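Predicting holo structure, calcium ion bound.
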Amino acid sequence: MNIPSHLLTLAALTTAFSTTWNAVAPAQSCDRALNATYKVTFTADWSQQTHPTDFPNNPHFSGLIGGSHLPNFSIWEVGALASNGIESMAETGSKTALTQEVNNAISAGNAEYLLSGSGTSSPGSTSLTFDVTSDFPAVSLVSMIAPSPDWFVGVDGLELFQNDRWLDEVVITLMPFDSGTDDGTTYTSGNANSNPPQPIFEITGYPFFGVPIGTFTFTKISSEDLALCVDTLVAGQNATLTVSHGTPQETVAIMWSTSLGSTTANSGTWCVDFGIVFPPANPYSQLVSFGNCNVNGDYQVTRPVPASAAGITLYLQAAEENTCPDTRMSNIVTRVVL
Ligand SMILES: [Ca+2]
Ligand SMILES: [Ca+2]
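Done. Tokens:
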């Protein structure tokens, strides 16, 4: 364990708290979800040059529409029948029915956030910034190929949080799909409702012939990488703090402070930019604990809250060592000491 001098200073200057923490074993898991913000950029390459066969006038894509959801839930998938919302999107570009379906899934606890963005001419590009949490890490997003009978591009259940890590960047190569709900065979075919509808399939032949349509690039903008759970803090009583989603047996630091702001600890094996500040003379702004995660990536400590802290608002945040140049931080927890 290599403790940066900045943090050692914080630890040493206080006399308000005892310097001894007791690790509690085995650590309980902190089941708080982690938040992240991503940007998806839809780069549309579909053009006369890439797809010369019968290429239509006014080539464009309808507004992006989708949601974040449970991994075992699907908004659409190859081999399944299209929902009414997918049919409407793929045939007309309308978001209305699919928006309702995603909102219904949110109400049912299968999805968390609706994703809705603009369309683009083609070639062209558009982007959408959205929030996602580790409890609903799968993202589905679609857009109609227009004009077309019932063709679309999209991603089905891309999991942005895998193996306790947010993915930094994912590039999805977009191939054309047929929603199986209209029998038209060319870009400009008239309406011909499929009866019965067919399962969604990838169009491998005419008029695309295996040439990709474009890409979805998912880029992480920001994220919580550790989960911090904090007891109610009561002056003069013990409090338990728990970190989860850490790297097994890696060192984590927990800090607390009376102020939000920014403190950079950038030395040796620490590359951390806390969202709280550590005024040197403030005895309530300090290192709370260093310790190692267990084999599950959990870390838990308990210690007394000083009687003199009653009424103070404390902000707590955890960080992990040995992640440079990346920063792995927790959410900031706010507690008024009772
Ligand atoms: Ca079709
Ligand atoms: Ca139809």
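The pocket of calcium ion (ligand 2) is lined by residues 87, 91, 181-182, 193-194 (CB under 6 Å).
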